[in-house]
């Protein structure tokens, strides 16, 4: 079969022949129709992600949309071993396969599955968002953050506060409050203090770094004592580390947690995507994407910024 094959660490995947997958006990063969080029797919292909197996050659891609042998349309996540999502066929543990609506467009579903998974799992399984609560989304102008705003609204958030450096994107997100991220960190903390004084229940953080430090500092100084702030860390686009004084966590009721591979079970992540894709129509959940034939994987992989790429098979 044809697949996007990675031959060594850091190599761009090549469209090449790869061994046919054979299903073992409790596994499913999926005929793939669409697989997105997500940040997770990129970093796993580079060998730098904590979940990378670093066994070569292997097929790139972590998730996608396809069909089982009986014709059922499914979403799948984390195929077994060297068999990735960017291939004509792959093999996946049965617990990481879930049925999706027949009316769902395959490429559109693949485009939102991974970025939508992050906030859906964070809001429902980690933060346990309740209807009527207030959510702050730190880093709302990227693909995942934009979806997080819509997902939080769909799940019943009464007030959404969005941060980001791209003011033009912030203005069209539909958030109730927007806070542009600048390098004036004292002014930024003052904005966060104002919002925490009014009440924030959940923080979804895609950035970490200085903005996360200022959010946590503002929460410690201004959050209401009777309402614990659930801070869910997802991404590190602004820095791998922060300075976190111990007194900050002692002074207020702040629950600091992560959400991702390892902190959420794989089968729970798959169920989160199933719920997400089932809510596409009701929640108006979508992202701009460009459909690219898998044969062009090497060229598309090397592109810079732009719409999300979905490889079609």
Describe the structure.
By secondary structure, this protein is α/β, with parallel strands linked by helices. It folds into two domains: 2-113 and 265-312, Medium-chain alcohol dehydrogenases, catalytic domain (Quinone Oxidoreductase, Chain A, domain 1), CATH 3.90.180; 115-258, Alpha-Beta Complex (Quinone Oxidoreductase, Chain A, domain 1). The chain has ten helices and 16 strands. The protein has helices at residues 39-46, 106-126, 143-154, 167-171, 185-198, 209-222, 246-251, 266-278, 280-283, 297-301; strands at 2-6, 14-17, 27-36, 58-59, 63-67, 73-77, 89-93, 97-99, 134-138, 159-164, 177-180, 202-205, 229-233, 254-258, 289-293, 308-312. The strands form three sheets. Strands 3, 5, 6, 7, 8, 15 and 16 form a seven-stranded mixed beta sheet that branches. A six-stranded parallel beta sheet has the order 11-10-9-12-13-14, sandwiched between helices. The chain has a three-stranded antiparallel beta sheet with strand order 2-1-4, with no helix packed on it. A hairpin with a 5-residue loop joins strand 5 (63-67) and strand 6 (73-77). The radius of gyration is 20 Å and the shape is elongated. The protein starts with a strand and ends with a strand.
Radius of gyration, whole Å: 20 Å
Which architecture name of the largest domain does CATH use?
Alpha-Beta Complex
- What do the pLDDT scores average to? 92
- Classification by helices and strands: alpha/beta
Give the N-to-C terminal Cα separation: 11 Å
Largest sheet: 7 strands, mixed
Number of domains: 2
